Amino acid sequence: MPAEWYGFEEALDIADIVIAVQKNNGGWMKNDQLHKLSSSEYQRLLNEKGTHSCLDNVATTQEMRYLARVWKATGNDNCRQAFLRGLQMIRNAQKGCGGWSQYWPLSNDNGYQDYVTFNDDLVVNVLKLLRDIYNNTGDFANITDAATREACKAAFDRGLQCILDCQIIIDGTYAAWCAQHDTVAPYLPTEGRPQELPSVSGYESANLLSFLMSLDNPSDELKTRITAAVTWLDEHKIADHAVEDYTNDNQEKDRRIVEQKGTHLWGRFIQIGGNTGTEVYNKLFAKLKKRGKTRSYTYNGVKYTYTEEELARANYDPSKAYEPIYAIYKDTIPHMYYRFLYNYEDTPIVLDAKGCPCYTSLFRAIRMGYQYIGSWCQRVIETEYPAWKVKCGIHDDGTYILSTESCVSKNGEQTYTFNNAFSITNDDGVGYSTAKAYSIRYTAGVTYTIHIPSDLQVTEAKLYGYCNWDDADAYMQMWNNATYTADDYFFPRTKNDKAQWVTHVIDHAAHPVTDELAFRLEGKQACIIITLTCMRRSTAVENMQGGNQPSLTDKVLRNGQLLIVRGDKTYDALGRQITDNLK
Question: What is the distance between the alpha carbons of residues 502 and 467, in angstroms, rounded to a whole number?
């Protein structure tokens, strides 16, 4: 709602309800529609004031933000006092490791609700709130005193360190994050509900990275961790595939994975490999064994009973490392709890070792009811990460990004000038224009020319973008004087007002491009971020080593940085020698 609405009587009436149902320990429960409660729902919440509070699904942080807005608009001190009680609950709920769990007070049953929870952005939402409070601006200006703001900053710093501590290390390499983590070192990935197996989580990792890249003045350690996570996720994508909703042969709404050039997927749960995977999954099996729960299922009059450890071990396949893993959580088929599945679309039901019929894949209702796979990481890798690198002045990997983040032109100017010495011109008088997520608009039928700095040559171009129209696709008709059809490098039309982002990579390594690179779109206007990988035109490495040295050269990627190894020396992509302690 607009800021002035929070000063109206309607907003104050809702604030009264928010305050009335606030838990005795300071927070609120999730998923309660406090702005439209029935009388029976209101009474239920009053009766439950003595139960635990929740931070999941924006619970508590959402109510606190609402109260802060009403307080700012009205000065109503009841709103401020309730806000402060909520803040105290968040401070009380912070774990010794710096993170937060779903509920406070804890259930102390060693269940998933007590773990550090990145699921559904829980920790991120808390940290964003703490950041807004200690920055003392906007809705939160002077809502607390200076000492409380300092305490919020300290809590934020501990929470940030928890994120870094939980980053998964797989055989010595930083990867990304799970949806839940243990609360003690080494903070291993752990299970959530029966379908949420220990893993690298594509969804939660994407949102954690977005948050980390929003932080001002990142430390060198934070830069390294972000780069490592982006690199790992990029290396473990399902390339050129998309999730498609469709109507199946039974005229039911269904979901499947299809080939789609330029769109990439990640599992919500990606199986961990290496020694780390062995440790993580053995820990899961041991935990389920210690818990000792059984699950029974009756089929054709026969009752089949399993321990949860049996179920978890039944289908786990170490050879499926880094593939998406799926599991089914449905109380009518409890014999499927914790079973590792590796098939998204329907595969035949089989008899298990006890002779009980079991699913070997997700089925339609489960596929439609939960996002097991998606393109969440693509926007981070292709849009946010390049923009973050520009903001941080990171160019050591030899890439040059042509986006709104790096462009220094003003809207309407015909020459698009970038802060990395590149520029783009056209002969049709089309001015510079910004678009979504750092992309630049390029008009169909217009020939654009990228002007390359004289000391560089382009070895690869990556185009990440979308079509700005919903009635036809855009496509690259000409790139560097080569012509293409509408099926080669195309950008899908917008669907349901949602941009369909894709990535295309054009390899110029065999014939690097110098001086100028021309391109032209046809069909419709497209909004694109262009990333150019370059090498120096002069053979800087050759010059440093002398003309009589052997030409044994390797390109390697270390911590997200492209390096050149010649003999016992290492250089960055621009030919500058890297000292031994940075190898």
Answer: 10
Place of tokens 């009587």: 9
Contact 409, 432 (CB under 8 A): yes
**pLDDT at residue 545, rounded to an integer:** 46
495's tokens:
């669907």
Residue that is written with structure tokens 């012509």 in the block:
483
Residue ranges per structural domain of the chain: 1-166, 180-392, 395-536, 540-582
Report d(CA 577, CA 84) in Å as an integer: 54
φ/ψ of residue 8, rounded to 5: -80, 160
Amino acid at 446: V
User: Which CATH code of 3.55.10.10, 1.10.3080.10, 1.10.1740.10, 1.50.10.20 fits the domain covering 1-166?
Assistant: 1.50.10.20
417-431, 485-499, 512-526: the lowest-pLDDT one: 485-499
Helix (H) and strand (E) counts for the chain? 14, 30
The answer to whether the beta carbons of residues 177 and 166 sit under 8 Å apart is yes
- Taking only the tens place, the pLDDT of each residue in 523-550 is 999 999 999 999 988 644 444 444 443 3
At 440 the pLDDT is: 96
**Residues 233/235/236/240 CA torsion (nearest 10 deg):** 110
Output the CATH code of domain 395-536: 2.60.120.260
Write down the residue that tokens 């942080």 correspond to.
61
The DSSP symbol for 96 reads T
Q: How many residues does the chain have?
A: 583
| 463-481 pLDDT tens trace | 999 998 989 999 999 999 9
Name beta bridge partners: 339. Answer: none
Instruction: Show the tokens assigned to 318.
Output: 């170490």
Long-range own/partner contacts, residues 164-172 (CB < 8 A, 24 or more apart): 164/221, 164/222, 164/225, 165/97, 165/98, 166/99, 166/116, 166/118, 167/225, 167/228, 167/229, 168/200, 168/272, 168/276, 169/276, 170/232, 170/272, 170/273, 170/274, 170/276, 170/277, 171/274, 171/275, 171/276
Measured CA to CA, the distance from residue 433 to residue 413 in angstroms comes to 8
pTM as predicted: 0.82
The answer to whether 479 and 458 are in contact (CB under 8 A) is no
Measured CA to CA, the distance from residue 247 to residue 529 in angstroms comes to: 34
What is the rounded CA–CA span in Å between residue 1 and residue 11?
10
Residue whose C-alpha is closest to residue 61's, from 149, 133, 2, 155:
133
State the number of CA atoms in the 13 A half-sphere of 132 facing the CB: 16
Contacts of 256 (CB under 8 A, 6+ apart): 243, 244, 246, 344, 345
Tokens 């389920």 correspond to 288
pLDDT at residue 75 tops 80:
yes
